[in-house]
Amino acid sequence: MRMSDNEAPRKKRVFSGMQPSGEAHLGNYLGALRRWVDLQDEYDCIWCIVDDHAITSGSDPQEMAQHVFDLAVSFLAVGLDPERALIFVQSDVPEHTELAWLFNAVTPVGELERMTQYKDKAQRFESVPAGILNYPILQAADILVYKADAVPVGEDQRQHLELTREIARRFNAAYGETFPEPEALIGEAGRILGLDGEAKMSKSLGNTVGILAEPDEIWARVRTAVTDPQRVRRSDPGRPEVCNVYSLHRHFGDDALLDRIHRQCTTAEIGCVDCKRILADNITRAFAPFRERALHYRAHPREVRQVLEEGAARARALAGETIAEVRERMGLHWRRLFG
Ligand code: TRP
User: For ligand 1, atom 3, which residue shows the shortest CA distance?
Assistant: First the structure.
């Protein structure tokens, strides 16, 4: 088909994935999801629940289905939109794992061993599963099977994206120009520090709060947040610059609120509990529409299933084209001889 002159140029395509560990949490929202929602206005978006990745980190088979469902509900609740984006579960599109296998042919083991995430994770095992080493190959396949132009990820995924580009380059050099080199869209939110004020927010560390949590639960979690350690008594002035609660306020309050909290903290006009109360209230208000939409989807699980199945069917059609092209280029086409 020829492109006519007035045909709109193809929108750039974005891909990103998230592991299913249940309901999304505050860190997922601030670091990824709220950005994904906005990207849908400008890009052709593909959002994937990466269960094939999750099995490399010892996920519990008994819990996987629930975790996938809860993350899917979270996606829909925050506004990932099946009318405008593909939303599906990775294992429904086996083309990802097939391409990952084919990429083994162009991926140097040395590059995999250099990945800092690999080195961190490998320390936890006496005998390291190959899936931990090969994890970034599957990630490259996720992205490249759709020939995505850009990938919104956190800073911690930069190295994996560089490897994805390297795999694209090596494949192109060996078998002919096939893949674009996708660009990493690194979020400006930076690392979202957990409520413990120590580690990156993560569900497994218990230092966060679910985006669909009830108001009293939000308060119960936020109340535990670590503030300025030097502020011992209510009458001590606080230091917002070193306070993680203050940095979380930035995401939920406007400049006027931030100025006010800054002043009231440094003059001990309010205590840390008051300050956390304001934060909990603002989070509760910001997430109220998510809770409402989640209620609907939880009551109508078939709608969620339908979104994921339609997403997978459309994704398979796209991914299948790339797989056909790659098989051809790599010589997996024995039928040729048979006319
Ligand atoms: N590794 C990513 C993470 O842990 C998840 C992921 C899997 C991903 N495949 C992807 C992210 C492809 C972006 C693109 O956050």
Answer: 18
Q: What is the pLDDT of residues 243-289, one digit of tens each?
A: 999 999 999 999 999 999 999 999 999 999 999 999 999 999 999 99
CA of 3 to the centre of ligand 1 (A): 33
The residues that bridge with 89 in the sheet, in sequence order, are 49
* Structure-token match 């406007």, residue found: 254
Whether the predicted pLDDT of 1 surpasses 50: no
Residue 197 region by backbone torsions, left for phi larger than 0, else alpha for psi between -120 and 50, else beta: left
CB atoms within 10 A of CB 32: 22
Q: Are 85 and 46 in contact (CB under 8 A)?
A: yes
Per the structure block, which two tokens stand in for 248? 């979380």
What pLDDT does residue 7 have?
A: 60
**Among 321, 338, 323, 318, CA closest to 15:** 318
- pLDDT, greater one: 108 or 3: 108
Query: Active-site residue 200, yes or no?
Result: yes
Q: What is the pLDDT of residue 2?
A: 42
Rounded (10°) angle between helices 158-175 and 130-144? 70
Q: Residue 108: its pLDDT value, please?
A: 97
Q: Which domains, and CATH codes, for the chain?
A: 13-193+301-338 (3.40.50.620), 215-294 (1.10.240.10)
With a 6 A CB cut-off, is 47 part of the ligand 1 pocket? no
Parallel/antiparallel/unpaired status of strands 44-49 and 13-18: parallel
Residues 6+ apart with CB under 8 A from 156: 117, 191, 200
Q: Going by CA atoms, what residue is nearest to atom 15 of ligand 1?
A: 18
CB 184 near ligand 1, within 6 Å? no
Statement: the pTM of the whole predicted model exceeds 0.90: yes
